[in-house]
Amino acid sequence: MLTQMKSKILLFASLAILVLVSFLMGSMPSSTQTAHAAYSQTITPVPTKVTGAHLSITGVSVELIIDENDDGLIDPGDNIRFLITYVNSGNVVVENVVIIDEYAKEVVEKIGNISHNGTVRENKITWEIGRVQSGARGQVSYEVQILGEFPADGSKDASNTISIQGLNSETFIFTPSIVIQIPKLSFAKTWELIKDVNSNDKPDPGDTLEYTIIVRNVGDVDAANVLIEDNFDELHFDSPSNISLNGKSGGDIIEWNIRELKSGGFSQVSYRLMLNSNFSDGETTVKNSVMVSAKGIESKISEYKFDVDVPTPTPPTPAPLSPTPAPPPVAAGTSEGSSLDGIYLAWLTGGLLVGAFITLSIMAFSTRIKDEYRSDVVRDGFIITLVVGAALTLALAGAIEHSAAAGILGTVAGYLLKSVQHN
Q1: N or C, which end of the chain is more exposed by having fewer CB within 10 Å?
Q2: Angle of helix 342-364 versus helix 371-397 axis, rounded to 10
Q3: pLDDT tier at 25 (50, 70, 90 boundaries)?
Q4: What distance lies between CA 163 and its chain's CA centroid?
Q5: Does residue 26 register a pLDDT over 70?
Q6: Ramachandran quadrant class, 84 (left: phi over 0; alpha: psi -120 to 50; beta: rest)
Q7: Does residue 90 carry a pLDDT above 70?
Q8: How crowded is the C-beta side of 73, counted as CA atoms within 13 Å?
């Protein structure tokens, strides 16, 4: 009985110890899983042998051998080394093994240091490996110089297509890719009227404008040695002033050098220009352009313009001329341009008539005229005086032609001559 009790106590104690050990083991931090994960990341397991021929690419490693800006990234202008690992995981020897790497030529400046007598044709590198034993591994490699400049459109993926094949073996294709880190820049230019001479809110000769340029890095990597070049219209602008951030002006170019522009950051520069008087009449388009570049990226150029309208001078309208009074109608019997006014002509004619009547009055009482002829002389003289006076008056007034007046006077003269002959 005692023996059975001791056995039960011993069994219970053993179970308790097992439970306690299990609990302690469960509560302690385990490094087995972590170690296994680290091991699996650094060691490539040997492929399981398969029946027949079986070639494959087990990995492609990329190593930076020349890092121009020492940033640890694959950038424009860097040199990298591709190392391609292959294996025959089949259980038979494979003959006539060939590896072909079709690289992304759009990002490659040149290829060099190709191992195992690899040859380049167009954008393909070919290695003729020959025989590969069952379970054998091998490596081939080459170096690439990345292009020095890319469009400033952000980082770019570059993929290779690597294939391996042999006699009686299926073709195995592997497509690794790399990311070339490229900044992505955007910019805009605006202007503002600082001095508006005629207050019309439009740029005119004599006005002063302030230009502002903002450059942004909207890419994932920093941009180095950013260059901003502003090409203004020197024909229509005077020399620039108030150039910000130590910008330098030479001719018609203003330059700013920004050592670094962080990802997500921006830089703002400005300057002022005054429109000169070198404008022809009418509308003139004023143009200028901005170019932005940086290390490893191509220049981006944008053109900006606005119109300046110079009114065409309108010739002064001459004052309306006073209407020239029409000259009085010149009668055919009156000498044109006579300097005697009508009142003077009337006085002259009247004077002649009065003189004639006085002469007739004297003649009427003169003793030299016979009594029998006196009445006839007075009558004829009176009539002749009236006729001649009337003819002269009408002629001088322009009422009758000169020829008509002359005809009347001729008739009177003929009458007098006839009278004289009869007497």
Answers
A1: N
A2: 180
A3: very low
A4: 50
A5: no
A6: beta
A7: yes
A8: 16
Q: Are 54 and 89 in contact (CB under 8 A)?
A: yes
Is residue 391 within a helix (H) or strand (E), and if so which, with residue range? helix 371-397
- Please give the distance of CA 197 from its chain centroid, rounded to a whole number: 24
Is residue 21 within a helix (H) or strand (E), and if so which, with residue range?
A: helix 2-27
Describe the strand order of the beta sheet including 108-112 as a list of residue ranges: 55-66, 79-88, 137-146, 108-112
**Tokens 């009427």 found at:** 364
Q: Calculate the alpha carbon distances from 67 to 74, 146, 355 in Å.
A: 7, 11, 136
Q: Which of 75, 368, 373, 83 is nearest to 219 (CA)?
A: 75
Neighbour-count burial for 129-155, b at 16+ CB within 10 Å, e otherwise: beebeeeeebebbbbbbbbebbebebb
- Distance CA(149)–CA(151), nearest Å, equals 7
Kindly report the CA angle at 107 between 109 and 187, in degrees rounded to 5?
110
For 36-68, the pLDDT digits (tens) are 222 222 334 445 556 788 999 999 999 999 998
> Sign of dihedral through CA atoms 276, 277, 283, 285?
negative
Which residues, 6+ apart, have CB-to-CB distance to 18 below 8 Å?
A: none
Nearest to 295 by CA among 239, 237, 227: 227
CB 183 within 8 A of CB 198: no
Spatial distance between the Cα atoms of 132 and 255, rounded to a whole number of angstroms: 61
What's the predicted TM-score (pTM) here? 0.59
Nearest to 96 by CA among 50, 170, 165: 165
CA distance 285 to 236: 10
Give φ, ψ of 229 to 5 degrees.
-125, 120
Give 251's contacts (C-beta < 8 A, 6+ positions apart): 234
**Tokens 């020239």 map to which residue?**
324
Specify which residues 310 forms β-bridges with.
282
The angle that helices 371-397 and 402-422 make with each other, rounded to 10 degrees, is: 170
